[in-house]
Amino acid sequence: MELEEKPHHSGGIYNYFQGATIHNLVINGNMNKNGSEHYHEKDNSEKRPKATKEQIARALVALNGKDNVIDSQRAWLGACLLLGWKYGFPRNLNDCCKHIEQMPIDMAQLEFQCKYESIRMFGCWKFVKESYDNWATLVPRDEERQVFEKCLSVAQALDAEIVNQMEKDAVLE
Length: 173
What we know:
The protein has 173 residues and is an alpha+beta fold. 36% of the residues lie in helices and 10% in strands. The protein has helices spanning 53-62, 76-86, 93-101, 116-119, 145-172, and strands spanning 12-18, 21-27, 39-41. Strands 1-2-3 form a 3-stranded antiparallel β-sheet, with no helix packed on it. Helix 1 (53-62) packs across helix 5 (145-172) and helix 2 packs across helix 5. The longest helix has 28 residues, at 145-172.
């Protein structure tokens, strides 16, 4: 006697990982245990602020240096996470660093540059997989707390500076 297969999931947003990149999926309808279901990646582009590459580049330069929030190569983790979750940059840390290298920045202006080798060890940490929108209520594991707090301060400062750059450009128009 064969048992009728019952739905495993009845729709919603699910995350899956491909390498160090997290993808959000919207599952429509029922998904059986065998995984058969139509799905598509969630598009958050209409919610993203419309900052230009130049505005983001100016913000990165403004916050980079020994006496600033991007005060080490590891501090780039917070920048990459914010840019990936909120500004449409690649969420894969290696791809994000490569994307930053292609931005309109004179790399000589950066005391500390985004180097994947300096941040890759954090790619599997729990908070790295959480949306930036959830960070305010996130309680990191004890071993992640210090790095999380640094990432949060970098991300908040960078987000504020990008908005500042956008407002400066709006006044000039």
